[in-house]
């Protein structure tokens, strides 16, 4: 974190907090919408099996979005923890400094660009259908 200036750290901290607030609001809104939809389904507004199937698919999509938001929220909280511990901005793989530009674009980054690119090359595979 020594490579970051105090004003840069302050801006990054504020970015992290603002994104956390946004995510918490979005999660709360999605949960309320999901709850409303559940009440409608229970009230018998789903007319047939096809409508029920679409309603279930939409509920699954909402759940996936909520899961993605919760995952991002955990990443942001971990980044704030690294700030407190004093190791924010250090690559988890190589230990070198993560550039401010990368952190400004993605404040929860745990790897420098080089290590992230390598990780994506090694660990990301195209899904292949299996029987």
Name of the CATH architecture: Up-down Bundle
What's the total count of β strands? 0
Q: How many structural units, i.e. domains? A: 1
Question: What is the arithmetic mean of pLDDT?
Answer: 84
Q: Count helical runs.
A: 4
Estimated helix fraction: 55-70%
State the end-to-end CA separation.
49 Å
Are there runs of 5+ residues with pLDDT below 50, and where? none
Radius of gyration: 20 Å
Per the principal axes of the C-alpha atoms, what is the gross shape?
A: flat
| CATH fold-level name | Four Helix Bundle (Hemerythrin (Met), subunit A)
Q: What key phrases describe this protein's structure?
A:
131 residues, single chain, 69% helix, mainly alpha, Four Helix Bundle (Hemerythrin (Met), subunit A)
What does this structure look like?
The protein is mainly α and 131 residues long. It has a single domain, classed as DksA, coiled-coil domain (Four Helix Bundle (Hemerythrin (Met), subunit A)), CATH 1.20.120. Helix 1 runs antiparallel to helix 2. The mean pLDDT is 84.
